[in-house]
Amino acid sequence: MNFERFSGGNSLLHRLDTRVKLIIAMILTLVIALSQDMRTAAAGLVISLLLVSLGRLGFKPVLLRLLVVNSFTVFLWCTLPFTYPGIPIMTIGPLSASAEGLHIVSLITLKTNTIVLLCISLLATSPVSDLGHAMTKLRMPVKLCLLLLFSYRYIFVIHQEFSRLNRAAKLRCFSPKTNLHTYRTVGYMFGMTLIKSWHRGERVAQAMMLRGFNGRFYTLNDSTLTMTDMLFAVTMVVAALVLGTIEFL
After folding, report:
1. Residue 32 has pLDDT above 90, yes or no
2. Is the separation of the CB atoms in 126 and 223 below 8 Å?
3. For 131-179, how does the pLDDT look when each residue is reduced to its tens digit (9 = 90+)?
4. How many of the other CB atoms lie within 10 Å of CB of 14?
5. Does pLDDT of 1 surpass 60?
6. Is 127 helix (H, G, I), strand (E, B) or coil?
7. CA end-to-end span of the chain, whole Å?
8. Nearest-angstrom CA–CA distance, 47 and 247
9. Maximum alpha-carbon separation in the chain
């Protein structure tokens, strides 16, 4: 499990302050998500591709993540054009695809890929710990920041517990099949994973209380805003205003 595939690098995006990238990501994502014009979504896709190239991210890992996301949009392409009311422009057997349905599914696909590329280029180029501390500095709810940091830290522990149970089942000659025994065994494995995670969480909470945890994490990487951060922020805000102008005009 590697959630920080893109966080290591020396590009401009990697050197930017995490707070700036977090704010810009929220602004651009909000503009793209609320857009209803194909031109706005297409322009946002161009901006996201430029950011990906600016971050010098690998083409193959980015493409693999897009393939995972677009595997869900395939279902929309198979259903939405044939169920959305409108002027039929194509007929496949008893089904008719409407122009409005094709427009909606194309817009959803563009917006989905744009938002994913924005998150990869702006958020994935920073470690998760830096994102949590940046959220704290931006005065976001402390519980939300702690939830992000703890979830990222202990999701690996839960994965190790489940892997241990899976290995134990394989050593007992467990072979997954489509029968009741397999469903019962997998259910027991998930249940034991939750129980072990609960007990591990109790021990971690007790250990942190013994060490004087006061509900706040401290970091040694206390960064300050530079002129590069400000110029990048101004450029992206102007880009967001241009997208909004395209949408409303």
Report:
1. yes
2. no
3. 888 888 888 888 888 888 888 878 888 888 888 888 988 888 888 888 8
4. 16
5. no
6. coil
7. 45
8. 15
9. 69
Look at 50 and 59; give whichever has higher pLDDT. Answer: 50
- Name the residue among 133, 136, 138, 192 with its Cα closest to residue 163: 192
What whole-number distance in Å separates Cα of residue 101 and Cα of residue 109? 12
* Predicted confidence (pLDDT) at residue 195 exceeds the cutoff of 80: yes
Residue whose C-alpha is closest to residue 7's, from 47, 64, 57: 57
pLDDT of residue 222: 67
Query: What residue type is 43 in one-letter code?
Result: A
Handedness of CA 190, 193, 195, 201 (dihedral sign): negative
- Residue 154 burial (CB < 10 Å; 0-12/13-18/19+)? middle
Concatenate the DSSP letters of all residues of 51-117 into one string: HHHHTT--HHHHHHHHHHHHHHHHHHHHHHHHHS-S-EEEEETTEEEEHHHHHHHHHHHHHHHHHHH
CA 205 from chain center: how many Å? 28
CA–CA gap between residue 82 and residue 91 (Å, rounded): 9
The tokens describing 162, both together, are 């489940």
Condensed to tens digits (0 to 9), the pLDDT of residues 181-192 reads 889 888 888 888
Residue type, 221: N
Domain ranges of the chain: 12-126+223-248, 135-210
